[in-house]
């Protein structure tokens, strides 16, 4: 493993200053569950690790029905699924945080890190997309906000510019008769990275017969996680039916641009987009009905 | 031998002698070894699957601060001389050496090219990146059928096919062709009413032991070489080192550390000679550890194979003929387990007409190494699937069909041996009567499958010595690496002879200077052969103690009887002493008692297993979930039933992994793209049900307690049993391993 410098930043400006000065040679360290492994396996060249865990803003976790959820960038997974109100309001995000790594990893790994690592297969990103998350980004020029759908720009690539860091994620409170669901396909029952992931959020009418709106997002079928815009839009105003869900699944398949690799073939992935989109939508709808 | 015998120790479940050390983390594994002045070694590996090595320039790496030595193949004794000196055997020696450090060609991605010793592991790693190797990249050959094509690129320009005693004129990737023949194959098929012929493909799989390979070497100034390592056999490491290094065997001591799994993969040496070369060059102790990618890319997996099986039966269910073509990938150098696969493939059945052809073929993958019943699992995937198909075609229960055609005592295997008393039929009967098999199995997309398997097991040499302590305990010294609880199973056999509890035995696995020659822990031989040696050494102790008792009582030795741990006088004189009490009186009767035995028992007993599996197929995703699993097996005699059960369960789990997800995935350049436990998918506990076991005991006449080996055969049936269950669930015959979700989707026509 290469030698590197370690900085434990105490404030956002301090972290931003180091990130600005060192540029590509610096990398934010939060849970480290991706970064340390990448450096150990010589897949990432990092001279400066900027530990942000001591910064108060990145550890914030607040949720109320007025302001929704504010999730500090370094809040570990276990705190998310350990908070009852988050489980009720943002079940897709909870689904993802429960399947990232094992229990020990979930004590360290954070949603912000999963997003910044920008893996096309990241489990947290489809839930963030369907839940309309906003990224709060600090940089040399101050703070700015960016919809999560615009954050990832390629495998391992993000919209963060030199000196910028993710501080928090803001997720609006879903309206009533809403729920969400995330699932992935893996060959085993644990330990694997998603061959395909699919997240869905739905809002039903008061009678719970019609879909008012839906959002579908996919992982591991393109260079970045995808928002399935057309598939989502065609469900708006439709009665809950297998036909509507099948149409959405087909539309989701149409935007998948998967590759073949050691985790799955392109044909398998395209097929699974259909299967998982159906299952995610049905799962989200069922959660509304069960609520 | 009596079928039912009462034992005091054998068949009980004492706590293993090495248990406390292991569960408290005190047991010392190779990576734990430390000594003053230790240097750390790192191996540079080929980035190409097939390339000529044009030059190696180590000057930049040598200049790197902290680097103490660099070695390449040039530091091994000259390969050319070995050819001149050693004749035909030299070919193998060159292969052996070239697999340690490549001399002229890199034959697989991960092939060791050079190694660095430095003051720490990080420096050694950085220095490896500074070694400049010029390669001429050649097209790789990555699949056995492709390698057998006459136009295929050649791995070895000098390799010519040896076929039934003849050597071919032209070089080829086919190292050898073997054949076993029994009866008249044409006549056999002519007799058949139903003939099934199918082709099968199996993937390259790794043993997947948790502990990576490791070795620390030190040369004393007097020339004594000591190597501490993780191995299935310290003596085989010593033998390989003496050959590879051309160094006197008496100057090499190998110290076996605790082992974190081997399954056949820790018999061949890899980093041991490299550590020795670096130690010699630096004059310091040097430790070389592999990481997981090194293990996948640089050590022997068990090979991929292409198998054609044709079997025929009469309409009343009698197998009349069986034929197979087995083509196994040897990896970079000859030596696949095709021979063992050929011995096992039709062994469970009494078939009059058999023809078996086997081909050992080199490809640009790591040289294959043994893996738990090597070759037999590949072979059984083919034969046991065809057996299932025949049974279905004939409308005969699959287990009944096996019983109707099952091999028994006196049946001759196609490769020659005649079976002594074996327990195949009994293992199938046990499965047939099991509540699992008789339970209903009717849910949609649920399937049930069965398959059987055979592994011959081996004997080979083992040595044991026993010294009697004055408190009635014994120290038992052995040379068999304890992988699966054999300290306990060996100790229990000595304890049974001496009428003492298992806890009164202190077993030690020692280095090559401290015990007689003992072959590897492999071939399911250890409880059988080293147990046999322990039995004989204990008999030696017993004879000596009878003499001591006779001396004490001033009677003839014939007048002393030993039973149930008590020595007694049987000539009318009232005298009795327990083993415990007599052991306290050795000083006054002539001094210490040490018993020993060296054995090479010929009567290894073949092992048979029959498995039942229930599973569910997700028709949308192609994923297979194992729901229930039952394994029956003839153990001969289970010395420690818990470890027999553990071996069965472990073998089944590895077989399930092989069946469903495990495989080396290669890109077109011959790079394994899944060289980690993340993407090389061995089953986790969340993928498995409890594996139920049924131990059948048909004693092996070749062992005093009836022991057969148990460790290997349980891996043989799972892939075929699972394929048969998938057929039962969805009506599709899977003929390629692993039966991973993408292959399942393809087979179902979904993609």
Instruction: Trace the largest sheet of chain A across and list its strands.
Output: 4-5-10-6-7
The parts of chain A where pLDDT drops under 50 for at least 5 residues are none
The chain-level structural class of chain B is: alpha+beta
Largest sheet of chain B: 7 strands, mixed
Radius of gyration of chain B: 27 Å
**Biggest sheet of chain A, in brief?**
5 strands, antiparallel
Proportion of beta-strand residues of chain B: 15-25%
Alpha-beta classification of chain A: alpha+beta
What does this structure look like?
The complex is a heterodimer of chains A (291) and B (751). Chain A is α+β, with helices and mostly antiparallel strands and 291 residues long. Chain A folds into three domains: 5-51, 2-Layer Sandwich (Uridine Diphospho-n-acetylenolpyruvylglucosamine Reductase, domain 2); 61-171, Uridine Diphospho-n-acetylenolpyruvylglucosamine Reductase, domain 3; 178-290, Enolase-like, domain 1 (2-Layer Sandwich). Chain A is built from eleven helices and 14 strands. In chain A, helix 10 (242-255) runs antiparallel to helix 11. In chain A, 49% of the residues are buried. Chain B has 21 helices and 28 strands. Among the domains of chain B are: 19-26 and 459-599, Aldehyde Oxidoreductase, domain 4, CATH 3.30.365; 33-138 and 207-298, Alpha-Beta Complex (Aldehyde Oxidoreductase, domain 3), CATH 3.90.1170.50. Mean pLDDT of chain B is 96; it is low at 83-90. By secondary structure, chain B is of the alpha+beta class. Classes of the chains: A alpha+beta (291), B alpha+beta (751). At the A-B interface, helix 11 of A face helix 5 and helix 21 of B.
């Amino acid at each position: 493993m290469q030698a590197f410098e370690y900085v434990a930043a105490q404030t956002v400006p301090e972290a931003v200053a180091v990130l600005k000065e060192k540029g590509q040679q610096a990398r934010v360290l939060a849970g480290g569950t991706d970064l340390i492994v990448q450096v150990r396996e010589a897949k990432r060249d990092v001279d400066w690790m900027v530990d942000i865990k001591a910064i108060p803003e990145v550890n914030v976790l607040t949720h109320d029905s007025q302001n929704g959820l504010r999730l500090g960038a370094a809040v570990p997974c276990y705190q998310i699924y350990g908070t009852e109100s988050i489980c009720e309001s943002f079940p897709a995000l909870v689904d993802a945080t429960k399947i990232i790594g094992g229990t020990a990893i979930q004590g360290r790994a954070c949603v912000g890190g999963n997003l910044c690592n920008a893996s096309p297969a990241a489990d947290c990103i489809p839930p963030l997309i369907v839940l309309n998350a906003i990224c709060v980004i600090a940089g040399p020029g101050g703070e700015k906000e960016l919809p999560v759908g615009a954050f990832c720009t390629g495998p391992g690539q993000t919209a963060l510019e030199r000196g910028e860091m993710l501080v928090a994620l803001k997720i609006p409170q879903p309206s009533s008769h809403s729920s969400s669901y995330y699932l992935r396909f893996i060959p085993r029952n644990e330990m694997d990275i998603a061959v395909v992931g699919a997240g869905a959020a739905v809002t039903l009418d008061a009678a719970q017969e019609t879909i008012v709106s839906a959002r579908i997002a996919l992982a591991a079928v393109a260079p970045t996680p995808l928002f399935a815009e057309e598939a989502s839009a065609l469900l708006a105003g439709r009665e809950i039916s297998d036909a509507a869900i099948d149409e959405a699944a087909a539309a989701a398949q149409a935007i998948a641009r998967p590759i073949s690799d050691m985790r799955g073939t392109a044909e398998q992935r395209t097929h699974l987009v259909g299967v998982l989109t159906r299952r995610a939508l049905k799962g989200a709808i069922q959660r509304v009905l069960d609520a | 031998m009596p079928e039912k015998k009462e034992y005091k120790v054998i068949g009980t479940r004492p706590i293993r002698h090495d248990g406390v050390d292991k569960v408290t983390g005190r047991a010392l594994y190779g990576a734990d070894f430390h000594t003053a002045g230790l240097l750390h070694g790192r191996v540079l590996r080929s980035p190409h699957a097939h390339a000529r090595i044009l030059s190696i320039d180590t000057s930049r790496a040598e200049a790197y601060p902290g680097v103490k030595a660099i070695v390449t193949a040039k530091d091994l004794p000259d390969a050319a001389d070995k050819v001149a000196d050693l004749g035909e055997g030299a070919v193998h020696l060159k292969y052996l050496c070239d697999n340690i450090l490549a001399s002229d060609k890199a034959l697989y991605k991960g092939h060791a090219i050079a190694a660095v010793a430095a003051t720490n592991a990080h420096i050694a790693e950085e220095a490896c990146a500074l070694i400049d190797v010029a390669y001429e990249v050649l097209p790789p050959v990555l699949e056995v059928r492709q390698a057998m094509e006459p136009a295929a690129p050649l791995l070895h320009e000098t390799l010519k096919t040896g076929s039934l005693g003849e050597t071919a004129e032209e070089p080829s990737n086919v190292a050898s062709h073997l054949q076993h023949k029994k009866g008249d194959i044409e006549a056999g098929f002519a007799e058949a009413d139903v003939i099934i012929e199918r082709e099968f493909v199996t993937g390259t799989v790794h043993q997947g032991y948790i502990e990576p390979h490791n070795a620390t070497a030190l040369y004393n100034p007097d020339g004594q070489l000591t190597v501490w390592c993780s191995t299935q056999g310290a003596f085989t490491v010593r033998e390989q080192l003496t050959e590879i290094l051309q160094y006197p065997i008496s100057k090499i001591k190998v110290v076996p550390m605790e082992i974190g799994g081997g399954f056949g993969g820790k018999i061949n040496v890899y980093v041991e000679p490299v550590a020795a070369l670096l130690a010699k060059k630096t004059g310091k102790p040097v430790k070389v550890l592999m990481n997981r990618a090194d293990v996948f890319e640089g050590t022997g997996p068990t090979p991929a194979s292409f198998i054609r099986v044709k079997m025929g039966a009469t309409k009343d269910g009698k197998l009349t003929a069986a034929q197979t073509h087995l083509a196994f990938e040897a990896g970079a150098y000859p030596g696949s387990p095709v021979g063992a696969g050929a011995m096992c493939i039709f062994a469970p059945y009494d078939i009059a007409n058999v023809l078996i052809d086997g081909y050992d073929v080199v490809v640009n993958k790591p040289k294959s190494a043994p893996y738990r019943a090597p070759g037999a699992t590949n072979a059984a995937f083919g034969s046991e699937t065809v057996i299932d198909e025949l049974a279905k075609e004939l409308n005969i229960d699959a287990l009944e069909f096996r019983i109707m055609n099952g091999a028994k005592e006196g049946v001759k295997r196609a490769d020659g041996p005649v079976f002594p008393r074996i327990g195949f039929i009994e293992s199938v009967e046990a499965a047939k009567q099991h509540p699992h098999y008789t339970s209903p199995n009717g849910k949609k997309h649920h399937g049930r499958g069965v398959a059987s398997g055979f592994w011959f097991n081996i004997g080979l040499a083992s040595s044991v010595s026993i010294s009697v302590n004055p408190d009635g305990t014994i120290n038992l010294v052995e040379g068999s690496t304890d992988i699966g609880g054999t300290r306990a199973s060996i100790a229990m056999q000595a304890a049974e002879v001496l009428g003492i509890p298992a806890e009164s035995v202190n077993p030690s696995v020692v280095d090559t200077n401290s015990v007689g020659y003992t072959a590897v822990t492999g071939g399911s031989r250890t409880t059988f052969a080293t147990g046999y040696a322990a039995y004989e050494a204990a008999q030696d102790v017993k004879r000596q103690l009878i003499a001591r008792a006779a001396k004490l009582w001033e009677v003839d030795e014939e007048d002393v009887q030993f039973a149930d741990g008590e020595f007694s006088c049987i000539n009318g004189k009232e005298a009795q002493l327990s083993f415990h009490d007599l052991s306290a009186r050795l000083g006054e009767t002539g001094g210490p008692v040490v018993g020993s035995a060296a054995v090479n028992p010929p009567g290894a007993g073949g092992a048979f297993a029959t498995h039942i599996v229930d599973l569910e197929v997700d028709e949308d995703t192609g994923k297979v979930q194992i729901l229930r699993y039952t394994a029956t097996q003839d153990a001969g005699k289970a010395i420690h039933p818990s470890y027999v059960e553990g071996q069965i369960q472990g073998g089944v789990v590895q077989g399930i992994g092989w069946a469903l997800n495990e495989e080396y995935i290669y890109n077109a350049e011959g790079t394994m793209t899944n060289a980690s436990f993340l993407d090389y998918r061995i089953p986790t506990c969340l993928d498995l049900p409890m594996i139920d076991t049924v131990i059948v005991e048909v004693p092996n006449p070749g062992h005093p307690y009836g022991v057969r080996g148990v460790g290997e055969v349980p891996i043989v049936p799972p892939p075929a049993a699972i394929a048969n269950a998938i057929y039962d669930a969805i009506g599709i015959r899977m003929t390629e391993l692993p039966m991973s979700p993408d292959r399942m989707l393809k087979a179902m026509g979904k993609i």
